[in-house]
Every structure is written in C-alpha cells, then in structure tokens.
Write a structure and sequence with these properties.
With about 110 residues, the protein is mainly β. The protein is built from no helices and twelve strands.
C-alpha cells in the first residue's frame, strides 16, 4: 500500500505491536451522539498490489465505522463514523486498522477470510 500525504497535518498509517497497519488521528476530534461524521485523513491511497482491496477494521467500540473498504484513488481518504454517545478523540489515538485482502474472497465459493 502506498499513501500520499495531501495535507501537512496528516499522519501516515503506522504498524502497531501486533503488526497491524493502523490509522491514527492527527488532530483532536469531537463526535456528537447519533450524528454522521466524516473524518478526513489528509491522505490518498496511490496503489495496491494487483487484485487487492483494503478492508477497514474497527479496533474498539467507541463508534461504528460505516466506511468498509478503500481502493486506490487520487481523492482524499475519509472515514464516516457514528457514535451512540458523544465522545472526544485525542491526537494519536487509533481510528481504524487496515487489512489488505485479495479481491478473490468476494467471489462465491473461493474461500473465506477474516
């Protein structure tokens, strides 16, 4: 996965202690209860290995991530989230984990992938 910083404040994804690729906040965020919030990341995904897609995983239950996948694009990446209760997210907190998946898993009868 190759990312491009579109904004000087953006954070590149990091590898955590469990070898997951994680996206962290670059600025503080306030999320109101029961409101859709689009979190712009200031990054774009330039390319992926052939026939792959990025699955977005939620590492916690603070909010629900409605964005499920990313494909390469010159557009800014974002996450759409909704929270049951209002919450504050500090700089450097993990927003999501990324998993590179082969697109073959979406074809019927091939295999399943967690």
């Amino acid at each position: 996965m190759n990312f491009l910083k579109m904004s000087p404040w953006a954070n590149y994804p990091l590898i955590d202690n469990n070898n997951h690729l994680m996206v962290t906040t670059s600025h503080e965020l306030d999320i109101c209860a029961q409101k859709l919030v689009e979190i712009k990341l200031g990054l774009c995904l330039l390319n992926l290995p052939l026939n792959h897609i990025v699955k977005i995983k939620n590492p916690h239950q603070k909010y629900k991530i409605l964005t499920e996948f990313w494909l390469p694009s010159c557009n800014e990446l974002s996450l759409t989230v909704i929270a049951k209760n209002s919450l504050h997210i500090n700089i450097g907190e993990t927003l999501c984990l990324l998993q590179l998946l082969p697109i073959q898993i979406f074809l019927p009868g091939i295999f399943s992938y967690n």
